[in-house]
Write a structure and sequence with these properties.
About 75% of the residues lie in helices and about 0% in strands. With about 150 residues, it is mainly α. The relative contact order is 0.10. The mean pLDDT is about 85.
């Protein structure tokens, strides 16, 4: 993959969505591209983001959609919640496939064994080992919950 491939794919998909008059897809991609551009010009000098950095921005945007959908659902605004969920599903197409609960549990089990951790206080040590192995494949909150669960059970 070249440095601009993921961003380029987003731009190509935006063009296609606009041509097919897919309002949800074009609005979602446009917002994501705006977030990427904002990230590129943040700091002292403008720069081109790597695919990993673009992925991090998309992951952050998808998480925002999930949280907004939950908030709207709790507030009884089901129409807005459905829109946020749909946008989240669209963004998920650009993210690597997330780990299943079983795969995550196995990685955490291995990380606990590798770090020799015992008890809830060792959570940081386990997260340090598990973090790099699950980066981009599972949300931090999910990983932390699994580590906590296994340390409490162990």
């Amino acid at each position: 993959m070249t440095t601009t491939s993921l961003k380029q794919r987003l731009q190509n998909d935006l063009t296609a969505a606009m041509k097919s008059r897919d309002e949800l897809r074009s609005a979602t991609i446009r917002l994501t591209l705006t977030a990427i551009t904002k990230e590129e010009v943040a700091g002292t000098s403008a720069r081109q983001l790597s695919d990993d950095e673009v992925l991090a921005v998309i992951t952050r945007e998808a998480k925002k959609r999930r949280e907004a959908a939950e908030a709207f659902a709790q507030g009884g605004r089901t129409e807005s919640a459905e829109r946020e969920k749909a946008e989240g599903v669209l963004l998920a197409e650009y993210l690597p496939k997330q780990l299943t609960d079983e795969e995550l549990a196995e990685i955490v089990r291995a990380a606990i064994a590798e770090s020799g951790a015992e008890g809830p206080r060792a959570m940081g040590a386990v997260m340090k080992v598990a973090g790099p192995k699950v980066a981009g494949l599972a949300e931090g909150g999910r990983v932390a919950a699994e580590v906590k669960r296994q340390l409490a059970a162990g």
